[in-house]
Design a protein that fits this description.
With about 190 residues, the chain is of the alpha/beta class. The protein is about 45% helix and about 15% strand. The chain contains eight helices and six strands. Strands 1, 2, 3, 4, 5 and 6 form a six-stranded mixed sheet that branches. The two termini are about 25 Å apart.
Amino acid sequence: MPLWFGGSSAAGIEMAAEHVDVYLTWGEPPHLLREKLDRVRARAAAHGRTLRIGLRLHLIVRDTEDEAWAAADRLLDVTSEATYARQLGERSGEDGVGWQRQFRQHGGRVPARARELETHPNLWPGMSLFRPGPGTAVVGSTAQVVARLQEFRELGVDTFILSGNPLLEEAYRVAETVLPALGVTR
């Protein structure tokens, strides 16, 4: 049974490099993720090891890119000020390197429209504005979401942990659109 672990600090990366089978990370723009994965792989190599790479992402997929961004806007619109205050106020000072990397992507600001925080084509760190944990979503049409997932695969990601919001509805949507486009069958 493989052992999974995630951590972006030097100590977390060292722990993963020395002991785990799958290094799990959150979604980030590919150039930032590449830098981190290069460090992880270098540390694993120093221990005579190689690691599999897992990536945790949310998906917001719709027929068109505009519809997908409108769905992200709706998530912002239905989130209470109290939730934003909790996520941004209480968590902004956290010392976890992964959280700080996530926080820098949106700077602790709630935008009027979700797309204002797009950090790379179709990447939105806004999920962390209203929920704890990994907060990057791939937002777009089926073709765009598939392209982003393939971009991450090219960085060496071999395992994806995907979710959406609302959970059940987005799971069906992904199963009906993204998975067939990736050649995933039942």
